[in-house]
Design brief:
mainly alpha; 51% helix; globular; 3 domains
């Protein structure tokens, strides 16, 4: 009978890894194929078998070597939490959200360091406060992004719109990451940084909803109120007790995506119009490649509609349409979609200039070694050989 190899893990590191993952002991036990009592025994000092540890490490997304450290790492998940309406208890981050935030912050820290080492220009993001007029702040930010309304109106699809906005964000020094966190998770989150502020969007929703999330989280960045934002709920927007920061970011996002003069030129709307149904908002959303929520919020803010119009928005309006995904894509392409072209470019340039090693790219971006050169193609860099 083969002898089981027991691994001398550090119990406090195991506890830390499980807590950081957001998974329960019951989740861990089920995935590993043991009882909760067994998991607790490992936390108390009993050594797990190597096969069991491998399964556990996979679930909490940690390398096995981490469990051999003498104590838990000092670095913890960044401070990011749900904003809650007064009187409402904010929930804890779920495992998918915790993993996304942890990975985003880790890559963000490396990007910030690379920007500094490579003498790249840092973020040019202006600042504002929630006491500022949202429309004025939105106008300043939109000018900085450099996309005029006529260009926006000429985009052929929401996908083209998202790529263009993402490119504008990256030109302004803002990283845009995309994570598949599931429909039970947040719409997105933001992480501040002096050189590389970051916005992350959840790909569980359709492209128009992701565009709106981009600008909502941008509102958090310009006001220094980084947060994780849950799915829109009617009472969060229409109730008297709405979080004022959330309200400001919603209005900022709508104003930034929909410059009022451009909207008027397309729709012919004037301050004297009264909008009672979603027809006008639907036209605006389609022409400007934005979400129905953004268009409706703009009409409400301009006094052309009441909050009751927002309540008429279909509950599943932001859901993805049916259809299968593309197959046969290289991992470098998938990671370029996740982290954005600029991230690939910075990592590739860092390697070319001997600022970081090849293994660092593999570690941070989780791609096969043979696809590193492909990063240069995905990010628009010219590939050259390197000894």
């Amino acid at each position: 009978m083969a002898r089981t190899t027991l691994v001398p893990i550090t119990p406090s590191v195991l506890t830390w890894a499980i807590d950081e993952s957001g998974l329960s002991r019951a989740d861990i036990a089920k995935a590993v194929g043991v009882s909760q009592e067994t998991v607790r025994s490992w936390e108390a000092g009993i050594r797990p078998g190597l096969t069991q540890l491998r399964k556990l490490a996979t679930q909490v997304r940690r390398a096995i070597a981490v469990f051999l450290l003498p104590e838990p790492p000092k670095r913890v998940i960044p401070t990011v939490s749900f904003r809650a309406t007064p009187g409402e208890t904010p929930r804890e981050l779920n495992p998918a959200e915790r993993r996304a935030v942890r990975q985003a912050r880790r890559v963000q820290e490396m990007l910030s360091w690379l920007v500094s080492e490579l003498k790249e220009r840092g973020s040019s993001l202006p600042s504002a406060t929630t006491s500022d007029e949202p429309e004025r702040a939105a106008s300043i930010v939109r000018t900085r992004l450099g996309i005029p309304p006529d260009r926006q109106l000429n985009w052929e699809s929401p996908a083209e719109a998202f790529d263009a906005w993402r490119g504008a964000f990256e030109e302004a020094g803002i990283a845009v990451f995309a994570y598949s966190m599931g429909s039970n998770s947040c719409r997105g989150f933001s992480l501040s940084d002096d050189l590389v502020p970051l916005v992350a969007v959840n790909t569980a929703w359709n492209t128009q909803a992701r565009i709106y999330t981009l600008f909502h989280e941008l509102g958090h960045l310009v006001t220094g109120t980084s947060a994780m934002c849950a799915n829109p709920r009617k009472r969060r927007l229409t109730g008297e007790s709405i979080d004022p920061v959330e309200r400001w970011c919603e209005e900022f996002a709508a104003a930034a995506l929909l410059p009022w003069k451009a909207v008027q030129s397309v729709t012919g709307l004037t301050p004297h119009h009264q909008v009672l149904d979603l027809a006008a908002a639907t036209v605006i959303a389609r022409r400007f490649k934005v979400s129905l929520r953004a268009a409706t919020l703009l009409l409400i803010r301009k006094g052309l509609a009441e909050w009751g119009l927002y309540e008429k928005i279909p509950a599943r309006v932001d859901d993805k349409s049916g259809g299968g995904g593309g197959g046969g894509r290289q991992r470098s392409e998938i990671k370029s979609d996740q982290f954005g072209p600029r991230t690939g470019r910075l990592f590739y340039q860092g390697w070319e200039r001997d600022v970081i090693s090849r293994s660092t790219i593999l570690d941070y971006l989780d791609i096969p070694d043979h696809t590193i050169e492909q990063l240069s193609v995905e990010s628009g860099e010219l590939t050259r050989s390197k000894d």
